[in-house]
Specification:
- By secondary structure, this protein is α/β, with parallel strands linked by helices.
- The chain folds into 2 domains: 131 residues, Rossmann fold (3-Layer(aba) Sandwich); 100 residues, Beta Barrel (OB fold (Dihydrolipoamide Acetyltransferase, E2P)), CATH 2.40.50.1020.
- The chain is built from 7 helices and 15 strands.
Length: 244
């Protein structure tokens, strides 16, 4: 649910819009303001996701208020106006949308749905950017999720990592957790060594390597976890461990 501030010098208009927004069950109105100066203070204090802003107000107009906000950090702004000639200026000034008075509930809901979709998209992009930034560094910790928790697992605690149809998983002596990082990223940004197309192993956690038929093998870790070793990677694994 997104938070909102309604700024309008007409009390009836504020209350009517607030009621319409509450009925959508998508927007929580956290404050109302009767003028731009009061509204500006509330925006800085409450940092809402969206501001529903009347254009025509005494002393300072909605357009002037919008110009006082930092484009990089400002909330979404949806102008409320009785005159559609303000629409072009609204979009030129970085407004997200505009609604005509009296506000039509269907038009309002359409604007809110577009707002929710845009917000989800930006959140996804931000999250991915954080993951990419994290993955670009040499990792000493691996972020994982499991049992309704977000965990940061030290690299030395990881015995292996593997992938299956449900994603990438990190295995420690005590637990299995899922990671949003790919096996390729873990291979490139950690000391985990590829031993199979779907497995990476921490060589410091290896207890024994059991040689199988057809040039295959399997690794048993100190805690008893088992990882397969394919013919392609057995030679390099043995070389890392000091076997010719």
């Amino acid at each position: 649910m997104l938070t909102a501030i309604v700024i309008d010098d007409e009390q009836f208009a504020r209350e009517e819009l607030t009621e319409l927004l509450q009925e959508t069950q998508e927007i929580e109105v956290v404050a109302q303001a009767s003028n731009a100066i009061e509204g500006l203070k509330l925006i800085y204090a409450l940092k809402p996701d969206v501001v529903f802003l009347d254009i025509q107000m005494p002393q300072v107009s909605g357009v002037e208020l919008l110009g006082m906000l930092d484009p990089d950090t400002m909330p979404y702004v949806i102008f409320i106006t009785a005159f559609d000639q303000y629409a072009i200026q609204a979009f030129e000034d970085n407004a997200f949308d505009y609604l005509l008075k009296p506000v039509d509930p269907k038009r309002l809901n359409k604007s809110i749905q577009r707002l929710l979709k845009t917000n989800r998209s930006q959140e996804t992009q931000h999250t991915q950017a954080q993951i990419d930034s994290f993955a670009s560094k040499q990792l000493q910790q691996v972020p994982c999720v499991g049992h309704q928790r977000i965990m940061i697992i030290p690299l030395q605690d990881i015995e292996m990592a593997f992938s299956d149809l449900s994603g990438v998983h990190v295995q420690t002596a005590q637990q299995t957790a899922s990671s949003q990082l790919t096996l390729k990223t873990l291979e490139e940004k950690t000391d985990l060594l590829r031993c199979h197309r779907q497995y990476l192993i921490n060589t410091k956690a290896i207890k024994e390597i059991r040689l199988l038929d057809n040039g295959l093998a399997e690794v048993t870790t100190n805690s008893g976890n088992i990882a397969p070793v394919s013919r392609r990677y057995l030679k390099s694994l043995k070389a890392v461990l000091g076997f010719v």
